[in-house]
Amino acid sequence: MPNNITIPFHRWDYLKITIFGFALTALWQSLHSIILPLRLLDFIPEAQKNTYLGILTLSGLLLAMFVQPFAGAASDRSWFRRGRRLPYIFIGVIITILLLPGIGLAGSFAVIFVIYCLLQVAANTAQGPYQAFIPEMVPADKHGVASGVKGLLEITGGIALVYTASILMDRYSAGDGAGWLWLVLGILQIVLLGAMLATVFLVREPPVNSGRKRSPLLAAITHVFSKELWKNHSFVWFLVSRLLVYMAFTTIQQFALYYLRDVIGVVDPAEATARFTIVAVVGMVLVVWPAGYLSDSIGRKSLTVISGLLGALGITIIAFSQEYGSILWAAGIIGVAMGIFNSTNWALATDFTPKNEEARYLGIANMATAGGAVLARVIGPVIDFFNGRDPLSGYHFMLLVCIVYFVAGSAAVIGIKKRS
After folding, report:
1. 240 located within any domain
2. Phi/psi at 347 (5° precision)
3. Of 68, 190, 255, 334, which residue is the least packed, with the fewest Cβ within 10 Å?
4. Closest to 129 (Cα-Cα) out of 362, 369, 368
5. How much is the average pLDDT of 240-263?
């Protein structure tokens, strides 16, 4: 169904409607890859670090899975003067900024657990409505290009902050003082505030469809998971594909620091993890926009299948490598895979969104992203279990599972039928 665009859309607008993704990715990549794994070591036993990290991030992401579609559905039915989406973005970011110092103030696992869960609620209250910008404002035949720009900014945000956080957090973990941790948290606050202000002041939301009936907020919320959604079998296959691929990517991303430290034996695990991430991001940057552009012309499904198989190849190389240099090559392949997947799969998601239901559908689509991240954390205790019986065997099992996730996720898109 073509979008009814009431505001002209120009090249500069691609950046304006996606800049907020830069800050969101910077936040979560820094927290999940660097800050939380090292911060938890201040409270928890060394032998149970994977378990505690898995429990923490799994719990927060379970909240994200439900907050995002509910916030999106609420914004679909909102009638604020500043628009349907922007007020949620403003409020969510302000609360996130106020919560971030809690990561540094926490003196126990219980406290950091509560702070992290509240961060998930606040940030996803902003993210759910934000995701409606592409299907709501971009012409339907340009969804791939817009998704490519969105993916490029998210990748850039992730790498910029992950590398900075790794250098500063290595100094913190070496005992050079808590000031390095506070510096990282302060940088994240500035990035979030800047991206939020740019979005609020630069984005012009289209006027609400005057023919659409108002519906009570409670009715909108109860409608989030209505039966008609699950009767769309192609959308269900899309969710399965996205879930599995993100389970693979998040698993290797989440436990990379511990893997590089315990299996490969790197001296500076935080910096080594950052280099791994940087190489992956370079691969993403090289393909994320071209993949989005190509998906508008040759289709989304074939590119999605290719991305899953490339991801499986990258994990296989890691499984058979003992040298850090070889693992960096594998990181590049995984980055290319995820760059292709991020653009083409998100463009596929925008193709499914009906008018005036954009945020609800994309919030549910991102449930698959969050769900993949949630299920990825479940393997934390499994890694510790196998490692306790045969040193390092838990990590080998983790890599095998990631290969299965990538292959199955790429195969799932075969069930998706083209929408008329």
Report:
1. yes
2. -60, -40
3. 190
4. 362
5. 87
